[in-house]
Amino acid sequence: MITDADRAFLQMALDEAEHALRENTYPVGAILVDDKFNVIAQGRNRVHTNKDATAHAEIKVIREAGEAIFDAKIHNKTFTLYSSLEPCPMCTGGILLAKIQRVVWLLNDDLGFGAFQKMNDAAIFEAKFNKIEMIAEPDADLKNRQLELMRQWERNTNHVSNLRSAIHEGGEI
């Protein structure tokens, strides 16, 4: 179950995803919030913008949170990470290492690099996953907006399939 606050933070993540798409990069946004509903960090995917394969939205907010993450780990504070898309393997690893206790996302990514659920189901890091509340696709309207961003991304010139097509057609990147 999500609250009005959850919905507001998911909307913020979606706004970041829309901004990422306007920057011609993968449309993912993330917000990190503490247990008092203070925004600790917010960000968006910047892979193409920064030419950095690790510039994912979730990693950006974990990096930006910096000392707050360490303080939360020491004092057992609870953070919630809101993302517009299911975290990939790298971002899931970052979430586990940062000991974020709650993760909420708008759209599962079964066909892409979405890995949070798959890694959880594999029970490899069972003890860590057991400490995380996971909420997938809690809001149909916002989920559909993220799905539309993904459809727009498929047509973007920076989408990998379009980059490959350009090369095969004799173009340059």
From TrEMBL:
Q: Name one GO molecular function term.
A: tRNA-specific adenosine-34 deaminase activity
Q: Where would you find the membrane-spanning parts of this chain?
A: none
- The residues covered by the CMP/dCMP-type deaminase domain are 4-116
Q: Gene3D superfamilies from the xrefs?
A: Cytidine Deaminase, domain 2
Name the InterPro entries for this protein.
APOBEC/CMP_deaminase_Zn-bd (IPR016192), CMP_dCMP_dom (IPR002125), Cytidine_deaminase-like (IPR016193)
The record's section on Pfam families has: dCMP_cyt_deam_1
Per its UniProt entry, which superkingdom is the organism in? Bacteria
* UniProt KW keywords: Hydrolase, Metal-binding, Zinc
**E.C. code:** 3.5.4.33
**Could you say which enzyme class this protein belongs to?**
hydrolase
Q: Which PANTHER family match?
A: CYTOSINE DEAMINASE FAMILY MEMBER, TRNA-SPECIFIC ADENOSINE DEAMINASE
Official protein name in the record: Nucleoside deaminase
